[in-house]
Specification:
alpha/beta; two-stranded antiparallel sheet; 7-stranded mixed β-sheet; globular; Rossmann fold
């Protein structure tokens, strides 16, 4: 009699909330603390190069962070000053209290993101981001340690990260604001979007919830999801 083998069905976890960091969790991008002050001229020059497609988004941010020209203590102070949406911790806690998981996926650098996450009580939340270290008065940004997530445009390929996460969960929610968030957002079951991301999703016919603040995410989760 011929043997019959059955493949064990992989059970997916119930749901995951994924958020971008700069401009989504934080109320402004980290680089804006400097592009609006001592690096204004460099920012304008790099932005012009980016618009002419002479450099990538990663190249723009890599150069800007490398030229900060501050002591490490001054950078720590700047990191501590970056405002974060006051409802971020509430949303992450609410998701986990109801049996879900959370993650942060960012094309920024872990050098400044992880300390801010720790500051607001998200030290145990997985972070997928570019690497960063303090060198010669600036932040040296390099692509993520995992080469499977490398992107020549952004350093980290957020879409590839999302593809792996989507395979693990029945429902994946995504919150973001920028161009780099468009492809990963399309993979999500539920989307929260503002600014450029909201515009691109609207233009391509993808449904989303307007992201006014993390309180709007909390209200949706409390009233419509759970």
């Amino acid at each position: 009699m011929e043997a019959v083998f059955y493949r064990k069905k992989t059970m997916k976890k119930p749901f995951l909330f994924v958020s971008d960091f700069d401009g989504t969790m934080s109320q402004k991008d980290f680089y804006q603390l400097f592009s609006e002050t001592n690096l204004k001229n460099l920012h304008e020059d790099l932005l012009a190069q980016y618009k002419r497609k002479e450099i990538t988004s990663f190249g723009y941010l890599e150069r800007l962070l490398a030229e900060l020209n501050h002591t490490e203590q001054e950078l720590r102070d700047a990191i501590n000053s970056l405002p974060v949406d006051p409802m971020v911790k509430t949303v992450f806690d609410f998701v986990r209290d109801n049996g879900g998981d959370c993650a942060v996926v960012s094309a920024g650098a872990d050098y400044y993101i992880r300390p801010i996450m720790n500051r607001v009580g998200l030290e145990n939340i997985p972070l997928y981001a570019n690497r960063g270290e303090f060198i010669d008065g600036g932040i040296r940004m390099t692509p993520p340690e995992n080469p499977a997530y490398y992107s020549p445009l952004y350093g980290i390929d957020k879409e590839l990260v999302m593809k792996d996460l989507v395979n693990e969960y029945e429902t994946v929610m995504f919150a973001g604001d920028g161009t780099a968030d468009f492809k990963p957002a399309r993979l999500a079951s539920i989307r929260f979007a503002k600014d450029v991301l909201a515009f691109r999703l609207k233009m391509t016919g993808h449904e989303f919830h307007k992201l006014r603040s993390f309180d709007s995410i909390y209200q949706f989760l409390k009233n419509d999801f759970f």
